[in-house]
Design a protein that fits this description.
By secondary structure, the protein is an alpha+beta fold. It has helices at residues 2-10, 13-43, 49-52, 86-94, and strands at 57-60, 69-74, 77-83, 117-121, 132-133, 139-142, 149-151, 156-158, 170-172, 177-180. The strands form three sheets. The chain has a four-stranded antiparallel beta sheet, with no helix packed on it.
């Protein structure tokens, strides 16, 4: 019996305080360890800094001559900006009621008052190839991989592509400057 009393005395208030401190210290180290592991996992969900800079870009349209186009990269995707001639616009509008897989008027594919500018995503709607200009029977783009042919308004006219070239979101800041994205 004396033995059990001595043991109980050795496990007194000083030992209880040390045990509480060890519990708190172990818990704090555990929380810090979980935070150290979780932070990189949570942080990698944020958008990359290089893509935030390209959320929208401005482009000076005076660099594009009448009848030509430029291909620019936006978020690693090619975008065509075409400065269409009056003849290209007339041909596109003459075909507004032609049979098409994805019917659309030329006027619905450009901004009002800016019919000479066509801004589209430069990716074939079949398998994502980049079409080339002045290919096919309609004076527009043609996909060299699978033969899809688009007119001067970016509408699918023949081939396996199911949809028109996608319109790209943009706004005119002035007559010579456009904001993409």
């Amino acid at each position: 019996m004396a033995n059990s009393v001595a043991k109980a005395g050795a496990d007194g208030p000083d030992d209880a305080g040390r045990r509480d401190f060890l519990y708190l210290a172990t818990g704090a180290v555990g929380v810090a360890g979980v935070a150290a592991v979780a932070w990189p996992l949570i942080d990698q969900l944020n958008p990359a800094a290089d893509t935030l800079a390209l959320a929208s870009i401005e482009y000076d349209l005076t660099k594009i001559a009448l009848g030509s186009e430029v291909t620019i990269a936006w978020r690693k995707q090619p975008v065509f900006i075409r400065h269409r001639t009056p003849d290209e616009i007339a041909r596109a509008r003459a075909d507004d009621h032609a049979p098409m897989k994805d019917p659309a008027t030329d006027e619905s594919r450009v901004k009002p008052g800016h019919a000479e500018w066509l801004i589209i995503l430069a990716s074939c709607t079949h398998l994502g190839c980049v079409p080339t200009f002045k290919g096919g029977d309609y004076g527009g783009w043609a996909c060299p991989c699978h033969g899809s042919v688009y007119d001067t308004s970016g509408r699918i006219r023949k081939g396996p592509a199911p949809k028109n070239l996608y319109l790209f979101p943009y706004t005119f800041l002035s007559d010579t400057k456009v904001k993409l994205g």
